[in-house]
């Protein structure tokens, strides 16, 4: 059971500690259409000539990494391709990539893909820094705490913001437990935002990954405790960009302006939650990813409005701010908050996303609660601290939800 006094005391100490964490925003070594081709020069500039390129099979089949590998060849940067990364990547994926890195004497890592390859690559970097620890031993807060190898992140989805976060979310294959490494040491130093890489994202993945970014911004903004004005501004900017551009990108994937706006939305939202933290949407969503293989963005899309509604009056002020940012109407804070949640649900319907999940099994409630509670409490400064029955209530809502 989460103890309210303990959680809030922990968070007060963490708030003070956060001022010494050295959160930073990655340097954008290149940005704009076609900019990935400039990355090899930036790699060479750092004196690195041999990299591990971490991506996934789906991207390889689409031929997307070839835009980078051709440029690497022209610039004489050697690379070893590692694409054995599954969605909801596991510790075993990390170990396989680590072996390749060592066998080929690589000097740095380029993570090329969505959150799955980026997080797997961060896991490889964390393991290189700690050769004698396993991924489960590195999960939690501040367990890496050592300089990692040179690392460049190239996102091809606009959702996780992993290119700008302290997190790497990895599943332990043996137990299906999905959990995060959280450490500023794995926050990428360099990133490339090339919107052309996201043009081929199918509408469903555009929708779910975009909702993941929304979730980061909304959870970071409603959490409050750890935020400074930097995180609050970034969260609001991200919400405004998603309000204005996600549906445009969903309808016309080739709209480069919409793709570019969504890349920045994911980037800002990632930066916002890297200090502000996420909340129960993520804590519960991760368990559904680990237990049932539900894609992260889909889990976020489904759970977000239900959690915000269950928080009730505790989030009216904050959600009213976000409604204002989006230009949504409302005569008072409660009305605005309700309109903000209604906008999220309206977007879900327009993009063909489900209201709930029928995969959740009652016999798993206890495990889901234990994992979600352990992830969120006391670290995430959520607006209302939930007990077991609150988690069970959410799970009931998710099972019964329909439009
Ligand atoms: N590190 C963090 O801060 C953080 C934050 C949120 C989520 N996550 C984690 O990230 C993972 C999810 O990442 P994701 O949502 O980006 O999805 P993903 O990386 O799993 O990719 C989903 C699918 O989209 C395909 N894809 C990726 N880019 C594409 C493109 N440009 N065109 C066509 N297809 C493309 C992939 O091949 C894959 O099949 C989860 O494990 C989640 O827990 C991490
Ligand atoms: Fe997320």
Account of the protein in words:
The protein has 403 residues and is of the alpha/beta class. It has two domains: 4-15 and 202-400, Dehydroquinate synthase-like - alpha domain (Dehydroquinate synthase-like, alpha domain), CATH 1.20.1090; 32-198, Rossmann fold (3-Layer(aba) Sandwich), CATH 3.40.50.1970. It contains 16 helices and nine strands. It has helices spanning 4-18, 39-45, 57-62, 66-74, 91-103, 115-129, 135-138, 203-223, 229-251, 256-276, 280-292, 296-311, 316-325, 333-350, 365-376, 388-400; strands at residues 27-31, 50-54, 78-82, 108-113, 140-141, 151-155, 167-172, 177-182, 190-193. A hairpin with a 4-residue loop joins strand 7 (167-172) and strand 8 (177-182). Helix 9 packs antiparallel against helix 10 and helix 13 (316-325) packs across helix 14. It is globular and about 60 Å long. Nicotinamide-adenine-dinucleotide is lined by residues 56, 58-59, 62, 64, 87-88, 113-116, 119, 156-157, 159-162, 165, 167-169, 197-198, 200-201, 205, 209, 212, 289, 296-297. The site of nicotinamide-adenine-dinucleotide (NAD) has 32 residues, from helix 3, helix 6, strand 7, helix 8 and helix 12.
Which characteristics define this entry?
Rossmann fold, alpha/beta, binds fe (ii) ion, binds nicotinamide-adenine-dinucleotide, 11% strand, Dehydroquinate synthase-like, alpha domain, 2 domains, three-stranded mixed β-sheet, 403 residues, globular, six-stranded parallel β-sheet, 16 helices
Task: Identify the CATH architecture of the largest domain.
Answer: Up-down Bundle
Largest sheet: 6 strands, parallel
Strand order of the largest sheet: 1-9-6-4-2-3
What is the 3D shape?
Answer: globular
Unreliable runs, pLDDT <50, ≥5 residues? none
CATH superfamily of the largest domain: Dehydroquinate synthase-like - alpha domain
Ligand types: nicotinamide-adenine-dinucleotide, fe (ii) ion
Strand content: 5-15%
How do the helices and strands follow one another from N- to C-terminus? HEHEHHEHEHHEEEEEHHHHHHHHH
Supply the CATH class of the largest domain.
Mainly Alpha
Averaged pLDDT: 96
Give the proportion of residues in helices.
40-55%
Q: Using DSSP, what is the number of strands? A: 9
Summed up, the helix count is 16
Q: What is the radius of gyration computed over CA atoms, rounded to a whole number of angstroms?
A: 20 Å
Structural class: alpha/beta
Number of domains: 2
């Amino acid at each position: 059971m989460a103890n309210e006094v303990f959680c809030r005391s922990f968070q007060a100490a963490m708030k003070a500690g956060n001022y010494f964490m050295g959160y930073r925003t990655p340097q954008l070594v290149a940005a704009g259409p076609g900019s990935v081709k400039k990355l090899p020069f930036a790699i060479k500039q750092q004196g690195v000539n041999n990299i591990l390129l971490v991506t996934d099979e789906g991207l390889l089949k689409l031929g997307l990494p070839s835009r980078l590998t051709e440029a690497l060849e022209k610039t004489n940067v050697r690379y070893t391709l590692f694409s054995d990364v599954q969605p909801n990547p596991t510790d075993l994926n990390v170990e396989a990539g680590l072996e390749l890195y060592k066998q080929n004497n690589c000097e740095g890592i380029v993570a090329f893909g969505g959150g799955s390859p980026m997080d797997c690559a961060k896991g490889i970097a964390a393991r290189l820094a700690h050769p004698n620890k396993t991924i489960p031993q590195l999960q939690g807060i501040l367990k890496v705490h050592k300089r990692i190898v040179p690392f460049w992140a190239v996102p091809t989805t606009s959702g996780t913001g992993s290119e700008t976060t302290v997190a790497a979310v990895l599943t332990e294959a043996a137990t299906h437990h999905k959990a995060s490494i959280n450490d500023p040491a794995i926050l990428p130093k360099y990133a490339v935002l090339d919107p052309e890489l996201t043009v081929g994202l199918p509408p469903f993945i555009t929708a779910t990954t975009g909702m993941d970014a929304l979730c980061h911004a909304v959870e970071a903004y409603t959490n409050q405790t750890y935020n400074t004005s930097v995180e609050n501004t970034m969260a609001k900017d991200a919400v405004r960009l998603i309000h204005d551009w996600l549906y445009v990108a969903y309808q016309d994937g080739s709209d480069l302006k919409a793709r570019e706006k969504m890349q920045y939305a994911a980037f800002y939202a990632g930066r916002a939650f890297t200090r502000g933290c996420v909340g129960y949407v993520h804590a519960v969503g991760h368990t559904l990813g680990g237990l049932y293989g539900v894609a992260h963005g889909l889990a976020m899309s489904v759970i977000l409005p239900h959690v915000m509604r269950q928080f009730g009056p505790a989030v009216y002020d904050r959600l009213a701010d976000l409604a204002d940012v989006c230009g949504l109407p409302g005569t008072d804070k409660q009305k605005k908050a309700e309109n903000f949640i209604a906008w999220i649900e309206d977007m879900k319907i327009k993009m063909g996303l489900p209201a709930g999940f029928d995969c959740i099994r009652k016999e798993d409630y206890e495990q889901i609660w234990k994992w979600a509670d352990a992830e969120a409490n006391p670290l995430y400064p959520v607006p209302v601290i939930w007990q077991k029955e609150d988690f069970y209530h959410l799970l009931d809502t998710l099972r019964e939800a329909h439009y």
